[in-house]
């Protein structure tokens, strides 16, 4: 049995949306310490990792480790019915073998739905990448870097040098270059062990930067021609991270 209550319903909605932009089904791991998931998109070029410690919740109970397969739309459609001031509890009904969502507000509403048995298992490991550069940016700044680049191309080149973090995109109609120096307002930190350049699909990045709804800042990790890591900190000690394979051809 497990049960956890949230008091910030809007934050939970944003977290669910941030998963749904990449995957339709997840395997949630619920332990005495946290709720988490790691899963890949259908194309196997991107991965999302979510971690929410028990301290994020108003009430939290878990008798043992559970791995639960969920259709995100099943979860999203029910959580969506909650208002900002409602209390929302997510639990597993052992007797009925169903997920249960209880929304307590002007009335008590109970939603139940079945779990999945065919969803891929929880990924125990994330890609082992030796990142050589990390940039902490305002989330809005990084989002604009991606959207500005989309105007001219379907691909984005990210570069990290000792003094600058750069996004470049080139297409038949022209090019876009966005440069952030260490003194730039949108670049909060830049740590570069080795200069790095890598190229990524903008359509995937456009989905990932929607995590900006969760946090005002984002950490971007890159290395030469290796997967990209984008990480948002969730209020309360959680984190949401995306990994994206580079374009190597």
Trace the largest sheet across and list its strands. 6-2-3-4-18-17-16-10-14
**Cα separation of the termini:** 48 Å
Number of strands: 18
Uncertain parts: none
Content-based structural category: alpha+beta
Give the CATH architecture of the largest domain.
Box
Q: Within the CATH hierarchy, at the fold level, what is the topology of the largest domain?
A: Proliferating Cell Nuclear Antigen
Number of domains: 2
Shape: elongated
Radius of gyration: 20 Å
CATH class of the largest domain: Alpha Beta
Work out the strand percent. over 45%
- Tally of separate helices: 4
Give me the secondary-structure topology.
Blueprint: E1 2-6, H1 9-20, E2 25-30, E3 34-40, E4 46-53, E5 59-62, E6 66-71, H2 72-79, E7 87-93, E8 98-104, E9 108-113, E10 133-138, H3 139-150, E11 155-160, E12 164-171, E13 174-181, E14 187-192, E15 196-201, H4 202-208, E16 217-222, E17 228-234, E18 238-244
Antiparallel strand pairs: 1-5, 1-7, 2-3, 2-6, 3-4, 4-18, 7-8, 8-9, 10-14, 10-16, 11-12, 11-15, 12-13, 16-17, 17-18
Helix pairs in contact: 1-2, 3-4
């Amino acid at each position: 049995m497990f049960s956890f209550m949230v008091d910030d319903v809007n934050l939970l909605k944003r977290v669910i949306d941030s998963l749904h932009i990449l995957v339709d089904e997840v395997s949630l791991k619920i332990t005495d310490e946290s709720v988490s998931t790691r899963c890949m998109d259908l194309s196997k070029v991107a991965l999302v990792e979510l971690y929410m410690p028990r301290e994020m919740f108003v009430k939290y109970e878990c008798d043992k480790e559970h791995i639960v397969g969920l259709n995100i739309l099943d979860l999203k459609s029910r959580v969506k019915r909650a208002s900002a001031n409602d209390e929302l509890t997510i639990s597993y009904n052992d007797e009925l073998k169903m997920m249960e969502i209880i929304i307590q507000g002007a009335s008590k509403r109970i939603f139940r739905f079945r779990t999945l048995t065919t969803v891929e298992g929880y990924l125990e490991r994330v890609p082992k990448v030796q990142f050589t550069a990390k940039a902490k940016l305002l989330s809005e700044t990084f989002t604009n870097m991606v959207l500005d680049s989309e105007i001219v191309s379907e691909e984005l080149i990210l570069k990290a040098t000792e003094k600058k973090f750069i996004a470049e995109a080139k297409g038949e109609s022209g090019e876009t270059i966005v440069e952030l120096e260490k003194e730039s307002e949108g670049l909060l930190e830049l740590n570069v062990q080795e200069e790095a350049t890598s190229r990524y699909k903008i359509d995937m990045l456009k989905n990932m930067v929607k995590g900006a709804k969760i946090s005002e800042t984002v950490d971007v990790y890159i290395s030469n021609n290796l997967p990209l890591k984008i990480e948002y900190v969730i209020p309360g000690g959680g984190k949401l991270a995306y990994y994206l394979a580079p374009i190597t051809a």
